[in-house]
Design brief:
Largest sheet: none
Number of domains: 1
CATH superfamily: Cytochrome c-like domain
Order of helices and strands: HHHHHH
Structural class: mainly alpha
CATH class: Mainly Alpha
Radius of gyration: 19 Å
Strand content: under 5%
Shape: globular
Distance between the termini: 57 Å
CATH topology: Cytochrome Bc1 Complex, Chain D, domain 2
Number of helices: 6
Length: 131
Amino acid sequence: MPRLLPALAISSLSIATLALGALASPALAAGDPVKGEQVFKRCMTCHTTAQGAPNKVGPNLFGVVGAQAGHVEGFRYSDAMKGSGLTWDEATLDAYLTKPRELIPGNKMAFVGLPKEQDRADVIAYLSTLK
């Protein structure tokens, strides 16, 4: 039995640490797709969102939420983006839209990011409607 107690203590400590980490990490703010469409106008210089619309300097973003990074047919992605292995879920989009070059060093996107959490949440809510 003495060998079990240290293992239980470590296991309990690990679980407590994970639980505290989860509580400390910021949750994504609730986004408003209507406001997100307005914020997204900054992105329209480089991106289209209509199904079947052509790529611009950046890829068409129709259906991007839930898609693999580097998935748009006919768009020439950087090796960094193609090799990222990311899926564009809400958390990944939030991290990318915060500082694109930090999440995927070497990607081609020149945009510096959206510093306001609510703007990112709104844009993600808007992109989520594009299905």
